[in-house]
Amino acid sequence: MHKKHWEDCLSIIKDNINSQSFTTWFKPIKSKSYKDMTLTLIIPNKFFYEWIEGHYLKLLNDTIITVLGEKGKIEYEVSNVTSKINEDNSNKLESVETSKQFFNNLNSNFKFKSFVSGKCNSVAKAAGKRISENPGSNPFNPLMVYGGVGLGKTHLIQSIGNKIINKSNSSVYYVTSEKFANQFIDSLKENKLKDLINFYVNIDCLIIDDIQFFKGKEKTQEVFFHIFNQLNLNNKQIILAADKSPVELDGLEKRLVSRFKSGLTVELEKPDYQTRLDILNYKIQNENLSINKEIVEYIAFQVDTNIRELEGVLVSLLAHSTITKEDINIELTKSIISKIVKDTNREIDIKYIQEIVSKYFHISIEEMKDKARRKEIVIARQVAMYFSKDFTNNSLKSIGFHFGGRDHSTVIHAVQSVNDMIDTDNFFKKSISEINKRILAG
Ligand code: ADP
Ligand code: MG
User: Fold this and answer.
1) Cα–Cα distance between 438 and 383 in angstroms, integer?
2) Which of 100, 133, 181, 245 is most buried, judged by most C-beta within 10 A?
3) Of 156, 213, 308, best ligand 1 pocket probe by most atoms within 8 Å of the beta carbon
4) Rounded CA separation 251/216 (Å)
5) Which residue's alpha carbon is at the smallest distance from atom 18 of ligand 1?
6) What secondary structure does DSSP assign to 309-341, as a single string?
7) How far is the CA of 77 from the centre of ligand 2 (A)?
8) Closest ligand 1 atom to Cα of 125
9) Cα of 307 to ligand 1 centre, how many Å?
10) Under a CB-based contact definition with an 8 Å cutoff, are residues 54 and 202 in contact?
11) Domain topology for 350-441
């Protein structure tokens, strides 16, 4: 049955395109099965699929409707002689439904909505939004986004692509420079370089990620330069991302880099404390999680490397607490952070805690260390011990030592007293939360 259907399709297609294109793109396709109104086709490689989707989608849709009726659908599978049938689902591609569904490589989870704003990214985000309103004809073409690993480059540039697709019928295509380089090599092998170029120059918005991987690949750069110029000439939107600023990108041709810089170049910086806190809170809220506020602040304070690590800590914490059915506490948080984040050199030390607590209660550090038993002094001392236990890796003995050579049991007692007061005295509890904030704010 499937064979007959596909033959019928082919005869319609043949009448509608030139014979060269028919031989190149449709002859090599075989049908595999027909089930639930869906005709499954085997295509030679992914590039084929992209090409067909980019150029013959309407023709294919019309043909399918003619042959199979309104409910007819096609699914593609990439032929892969080495992989066993049923084993490799990753090669199964999406089915065609509407003409909007151009194979674009975009991950639909990357949205502006989930891209939390902060000082570090506000310019880039605003530019991205402007572009998505009006791709192609805007002062930010090309847009070049750069910044270190895990700072949101891919998220941002894909958000632009997703927004454009949702608003218009424009064709958007996302690709990494590495994948582009592989496509280029494949196209040479298969004698299809012209087709590759043709595919690219017909895209309305090309998003190319991690262009630092073009380094040293001269032939690939040459082809890309050609495509870039073609798109640019036709006012098509180009968006690029790299892990370094254009001046620092080595191994890339000068003329290419100078073209990249001809629109807007914008950096994604490391997020500050407030933005890190906002990002964590967004994710916690979005996933309906409940994590103690102090712990969230502690993570935001400690994990200042990048957003991927910030997310990583959150995910691991959840995983651990789900598996062990334990609450997320500060010990678990500390141990996870030390496993995920490489440079946790932002240790808070006892001296620093003493300074903050001393200022808060207007009690001098000397008084805290002294033998004085006045109630205000005892409380300040206990609070400072409590936070020293909480925030530092010092042993109870060492904490006692820093408070005028007290015993470790005094520290235990202090931590217990503070915990009791937090439970019973709301005013005190607020003070603790405020001191906590001050310690974290640096
Ligand atoms: P890069 O491409 O710069 O290495 P990604 O875009 O892959 O970084 O971001 C790493 C992770 O952090 C992703 O899961 C992304 O969703 C998340 N992320 C990055 N920036 C933000 C932000 N501003 N708000 C929320 N999540 C973000
Ligand atoms: Mg990336």
Assistant:
1) 13
2) 181
3) 308
4) 5
5) 152
6) HHHHHHHHHHHHHHHH-----HHHHHHHHHHH-
7) 27
8) 23
9) 6
10) yes
11) Chromosomal Replication Initiator Protein Dnaa; Chain: A; (1.10.1750)
Tell me, in angstroms, the distance from the centre of ligand 1 to residue 125's CA: 12
Exposed, middle or buried by CB within 10 Å (0-12, 13-18, 19+), for 175?
buried
Phi first, then psi: give them for residue 234, nearest 5 degrees. Answer: -90, 20
Q: How far is CA 203 from CA 54, 106, 301, 305, 351, in A?
A: 8, 14, 43, 36, 60
- Residues 6+ away with beta carbon under 8 Å from 425: none
CA 202 – ligand 1 centroid, Å: 29
> Which CATH superfamily includes the segment(s) 100-267?
P-loop containing nucleotide triphosphate hydrolases (3.40.50.300)
Residues near ligand 1 (Cβ within 6 A): 114-116, 121, 147, 149-155, 279, 307-308, 311
Ligand 1, atom 6, lies closest to the CA of 152
Q: In ligand 1, which atom is closest to the CA atom of 241?
A: 2
Q: Give 152 Cα–ligand 1 centroid separation in angstroms.
A: 3
Distance from residue 392's CA to the centre of ligand 1 (Å): 29
Secondary structure letter of residue 23 according to DSSP: I
Structural domain boundaries of the chain? Answer: 2-85, 100-267, 273-340, 350-441
Position in ligand 1 atom list of the atom nearest CA 147: 3
Distant-in-sequence, close-in-space partners of 312: CB < 8 Å, separation ≥ 6: 340
Question: Does 142 sit behind a cis peptide bond, omega within 30 degrees of 0 on the bond before it?
Answer: yes
* Model pTM above 0.70: no
**Ligand nearest to the Cα of 157, by number:** 1
Q: What is the pLDDT along the chain (442 residues), one digit of tens a residue?
A: 899 999 999 999 998 888 777 887 888 898 999 999 999 998 877 767 777 877 888 899 899 999 999 889 888 887 654 322 333 334 444 444 333 334 788 998 899 999 999 999 999 999 999 999 999 989 999 999 999 999 999 999 999 999 999 998 889 999 999 999 999 999 998 898 998 999 999 999 999 999 999 999 999 999 999 999 999 999 999 999 999 999 889 889 999 999 998 999 999 999 999 999 999 999 999 888 889 999 999 999 999 989 999 998 998 888 887 777 778 888 889 888 887 775 545 567 899 999 999 999 999 999 999 988 899 999 999 999 999 998 887 889 999 999 999 999 999 999 999 999 999 999 999 999 999 988 877 6
Mutate-to-test residue for ligand 1 from 155, 208, 284, highest number of ligand atoms within 8 A of CB: 155
| Topology (CATH level 3) of domain 2-85 | GMP Synthetase; Chain A, domain 3 (3.30.300)
